[in-house]
Amino acid sequence: MSNLSAMLLLWSALLASAPAMAASMPAATPTPGFQDNEGCLLCHKYPRMGRITEDGVLRHYYIQPEVFSRTVHRNVPCRDCHVEINELPHKPIKTGVTCNTECHSVKNPATGKPFSHKPIVEAYRESVHGRNKLATGTDADKPYCVTCHTNPLYNPAELAPPKQIIDRCTLCHEDRSFVTRWYNHTSRRIREVRRTSEQIVALCSTCHDDQRMVERHQQKAKAESRELGRKFPIAVESYEESFHGKMVKYGFGAAANCLDCHADTVNYYKSVHEIRPSRDPASPVHKDRRAETCKRCHTYADQNYAQLDPHPSSKRGDNAFRYFAEMIYNIIGYVVITSLVGLSLFETFGRRRDGVGWRLVHGSSWWRKSKRGRDRIV
Amino acid sequence: MKLSNEARDVLETSMRQNRVSAEQREEIEAVVAMLPEDRVLLYKNVVSNPLGDLYRYSIHIRIQHMLTFVTFLTLAFTGLPIHFFESFWAEPFNSMLGGVNITRIIHRTIASVMITSMIYHLLTITLGSWQRIRAGTFDIRRTIIPLPKDLRDFRADVQYFAGKRTQRPEMDKFNYKSKIHYFAAAFGNGVMILSGSTFLFPELWAMILPTSMVAHWQELMRLSHPHEALLALLVIAFSHWYNVHLAPGRFPMQWTFLTGKITREHQMEEHFLEYLRNLVEVPAERKILQDVLESRELVDEAAGRKGR
Fold this sequence. Notes:
The complex is a heterodimer of chains A (378) and B (308).
Chain A: H1 3-24, H2 41-44, E1 50-52, E2 58-60, H3 65-68, H4 78-81, E3 102-107, E4 114-116, H5 118-126, H6 145-148, H7 163-173, H8 176-190, H9 197-208, H10 211-223, H11 235-241, H12 243-250, H13 258-262, H14 268-271, H15 290-295, H16 320-352
Helix pairs in contact in A: 7-8, 11-12
Chain B: H1 5-17, H2 22-34, H3 39-45, E1 54-55, H4 59-83, H5 90-96, H6 100-135, H7 148-161, H8 176-200, H9 202-208, H10 211-246, H11 256-259, E2 261-262, H12 264-270, H13 272-281, H14 283-295, H15 301-305
Antiparallel strand pairs in B: 1-2
Helix pairs in contact in B: 1-13, 2-14, 3-12, 4-5, 4-6, 4-10, 8-9, 8-10, 9-10, 12-13, 13-14
């Protein structure tokens, strides 16, 4: 083959295979940022990475970098949280990540100190849900941080940051990736990515509607001779009986969800971590604070209004008045209807005996033959 | 027919209140004497205009009934689908009008129409009674007020249905059945308004009641509203509609709610004492009655012997 034809063959082969080559190359990472400086992803990028524990629980040991780089922990290097890792290959973990770790790398720009969730964790530990990461017995029923906080995407309602906003900021700040990161950071907070009432009720119900969990805690409380909240065993069921529960469930509009009463509105995002039992005077549902809690929505509520039960039930043990009222109402209902219908039927049979029928014929309904021989004279 | 003491008293009162002349009195007495002893034969043989023969309900009462009828059904069919939201039948009712956000507003608005109708009714019956008292034509037996006679009538009627008596008792303008129905509806409406107001103004009720009662009151009202609604709907459907549409003698429908008039056969059967008053107040009725009796040869023997 001549040199020219060989050259032509080579070029055409290259051109022909260019699309195939492009397809086989890894896709360019669209989002900037997730820096794997220590090579963790060498192993931990594989989706099958994991193990089954002695208790039969499947644990996943991988992350998806393109997803993780859009979450709120995007900027945090692996070992800032996974502090127990000191060498490769690393030894089996004892405790694992606890959310009160101080990040080495991420600084709080306002104070210059290492960023940490410690204040929240400490507040949480004082609350009725407080627990350590490794807990046993009834403490293990309580939610740990990751039960509710699942490292979410910046703003799931936004597929991509709005181009106009990014363009505008980039005009001065020049670095598009910097601007995108900043935008993501603030948009999540400004756009109030709060759980909806339905989601909050569903979240709280995962534990508070679990009968076995409730029974465990009742038994433990009984063994320790202490009292649980009066509505604790029927919390979710009774909430769903209430007007609030129904409005939330059926999507009619804004009505109180669990946190709207059980957490303070002052410093809300902290106070949802500081939930106290109702017997604690600091709780918004303590009897001394109830009226002011109701007033958040019911402007004219007073002490009397606070007597109304937002967790109503007809169980005899909880509300004997309602139990009997309902029973009496049911009885009256059945009796009244049965008697009225019975009387109507009785009357019909009685009148038919004398020959009344179901037609208005020639101006009279009494066209049938009477059983007592008193017929119409036609 | 020889009138019973009760009937005689009713007739005398009516003749006195209407200040009938001696001639008219004679006429009335004559036609009453012609009535057969067996009232069943009487009402079996009259000819009735299905639209009604004898005046019974004023225009006010008819308007109030129409208002109550429309508002009650609207309230029931907007309210019950809200209460029974998860039932299969509730979904079409709710979505038909655009969802619960709309039906709840309709419900409250129509409720205020119903309350207005109730006030209108209370005014009608109070002012109407006052007018009659002033004119000297008031007779408590013609009102909806329950009397001991109603208990006696109920007992006698039950005996008739059981076959123990041959005739129905002589009942007045509003018999025991009408009175039961009226007070059931009035009571039901009252409970609905009271419990409805507790839903709409919970803070107000909480403020005015003593503290120990507040929670129980709300709970009771919260139970009453849907319960009473359902009960009222069932009563209306199975009792009232049965009596005006399905009962033999009323089928296919009674026109009284529109025309205000009751058929002759109904009046004689269930409101005989009022029929006697009709004979006094409506001279034409005497003629019609006489014609019927003579053409069907039902004239009472005793009267016949008197040579009429």
